[in-house]
Design goal:
Blueprint lengths: L32 H26 L6 H19 L5 H18 L6
Helix pairs in contact: 1-2
Length: 112
């Protein structure tokens, strides 16, 4: 994903993901920091979904540079969410343990 600042008056590159015909973002309301964080996180999650889908379609699970890139991007966004204290690490860790229990019960990904 291109690094874009989505604030009023910010210059965007031609051909950007936002609007290739708009050189400034003045006509759109400025996003506050948390809105921008959520939007970019959603976009990065979508890109990870696409990379996972392509890995399946192309049978390209190992040494997949695109998958690595998108996982890193999503992990970065998760860390920014933690930095903003929208959630705390202890609660996330608890949720991860709950998910592992579910995976042990309902999938073949983890064994006892």
């Amino acid at each position: 994903m291109k690094n874009l600042k989505v604030r009023a008056g910010t210059q965007l590159d031609k051909g950007s993901d936002c609007n290739p015909d708009v050189s400034e973002f003045d006509s759109h309301p400025a996003l506050n920091k948390l809105q921008e964080l959520m939007i970019i996180t959603m976009e990065e999650c979508g890109e990870l979904i696409q990379a996972c889908s392509k890995a399946i379609r192309c049978n390209s699970y190992y040494d997949n540079k695109k998958l690595l890139e998108e996982i890193g991007d999503v992990q970065c966004m998760i860390e920014l969410i933690l930095d903003e204290e929208l959630v705390n690490w202890e609660d996330v860790n608890d949720q991860m343990h709950k998910k592992r229990k579910k995976l042990k019960k309902w999938s073949n990904l983890l064994s006892d």
